[in-house]
Design a protein that fits this description.
Length: 431
């Protein structure tokens, strides 16, 4: 009997531990969940919110495949010990301000296959110990430049299978421990050359995007074939393919030549060479491209003052591709030059502004030739409004509406003095 005492003691200890384990796994565990010490499994329980009676010492919460739609500020308020949080396969569309900030010990955050549309700057505030962030399979179109601010220990960010067309590359400089950034299967068409000089370049996975192989991507082909590309990216070099232009679709970028990366220079068609307005009335001069993709629009005023895109100089300001003058005075009269620039080159066109009776409009039907053919149209006893529009990058609509004030409108049918239309502003367009 003396020899069996240790065995009896061991058996009692085992039964006691089993009892405590069962007690821990059942007491304080909400319906639909299973609790095992500090591990809580609520997977596929059909829950629409995180239960409020979860064990306070929970450090591993699996809440995948439920119906959570929104993370409120108090959703995890009592669960400050969580280290691993799995929320994949829910319907989450947004995260309230600082809703995760109390999770000071969080190391893994899984938000795969939800319905997030952007990453706001405050989503991950306070998660200084986060190591892995899973965001695959959402519908994210935008990442704020400060979205990853404070994630000093982040090692892996998975953003594949989203809708991103761009990425704030400069934000990577704030992530000194980053080992992997997955941006595969997004909608990125052009890459920023700055990524070549980033210390985290080896962490980038950028293949399987619909790249536009124009002059803006010429540097990328050169880099891939230089032998200097990081090992991680080089392993997938054959998966970087062109989506546009159509002639290069599915071609491997590493197999192309430098001359294959072509950008069409901008082209302008000038429809109105002269804008005439009455003194004190507004005027708008618009400079639009008929082909190519603009990267910069610049105006030179009649007094050789350069105005860049979307800037203001008091009465004169630019918005988009147009230059506006709030109230035309004598000093505004003269020639204005619009210069449009893109990766393929630059082109300029000029338009004159004058003060007078806006009775005559001049049209240049072939502005890209050296000998310009102009057609003058004179309209008496009418009001003419010309609207120039731009749609789909190349289509121009010019609509003319004539409101006839007298029944005798023919220029040769009346002996009365010609009627001058009331004062109104002028609009001229480069299309």
């Amino acid at each position: 009997m003396v020899r069996q005492a240790p065995r009896m003691t061991s058996l009692c200890v085992l039964l006691l531990c089993t009892t405590l384990l069962c007690f821990t796994s059942t007491w304080g565990c909400p319906d639909g969940c299973e609790c095992l010490v500090s591990f809580v499994n609520c997977q596929a329980a059909g829950l629409t919110s995180v239960p409020t009676d979860l064990p306070l010492d929970t450090d591993h919460l699996d809440f995948t495949e439920n119906n959570l739609t929104y993370i409120h500020a108090d959703t995890f308020k009592q669960l400050s010990q969580i280290q691993q949080l799995y929320l994949a396969g829910n319907q989450i569309t947004d995260i309230e301000f600082r809703a995760l900030s109390m999770l000071k010990h969080l190391k893994i955050l899984d938000l795969r296959h939800n319905k997030l549309t952007e990453l706001r700057e405050y989503y991950f505030t306070g998660l200084s110990k986060l190591r892995q962030l899973f965001l695959v399979g959402n519908i994210i179109t935008k990442v704020d430049s400060m979205a990853f601010s404070g994630l000093f220990r982040i090692e892996k960010i998975y953003l594949g299978k989203n809708e991103l067309t761009s990425f704030p590359w400069a934000s990577l400089f704030l992530l000194p421990m980053l080992e992997q950034l997955d941006l595969t299967e997004n909608r990125i068409q052009v890459l920023d050359p700055k990524i070549r000089n980033m210390p985290q370049a080896n962490a980038l996975f950028l293949h399987d995007n619909p790249y536009r192989c124009n002059c803006q991507m010429r540097w990328f082909e050169e880099w891939l074939n230089s032998g200097l590309v990081p090992q991680g990216m080089d392993a997938y070099r054959n998966l970087y393919k062109c989506h546009l232009p159509e002639s290069l679709r599915q071609d491997k970028i590493v197999s192309l030549k430098q001359e294959d990366f072509y950008c069409a220079p901008p082209a302008l068609t000038v429809y109105s060479k002269t804008v005439v307005v009455e003194n004190g009335m507004p005027a708008s001069l618009c400079c639009h491209m008929t082909s190519g993709s603009p990267t910069d629009v610049q105006w030179l005023t009649a007094h050789n003052i350069t105005i860049n895109r979307n800037t203001s100089l008091g009465r004169i300001w630019t918005e988009g591709n147009c230059l506006h003058i709030r109230s035309v005075i004598n000093m505004d009269v003269g020639e204005y030059v619009c210069t449009v620039t893109n990766q393929g080159g630059a082109v300029s066109a000029s338009l004159s502004l004058d003060i007078g009776q806006p009775r005559t409009e001049q049209y240049n039907v072939n502005a890209n030739t050296t000998s310009e053919e102009e057609m003058t149209v004179t309209i008496d006893r009418t009001e003419v409004f010309i609207l120039c529009g731009f749609s789909s990058g190349s289509l121009v609509f010019v609509a003319m509406y004539l409101f006839i004030k007298w029944p005798n409108v023919g220029p040769c049918k009346s002996n009365k003095a010609p009627h001058h239309p009331p004062a109104h502003g002028g609009i001229g367009c480069f299309q």
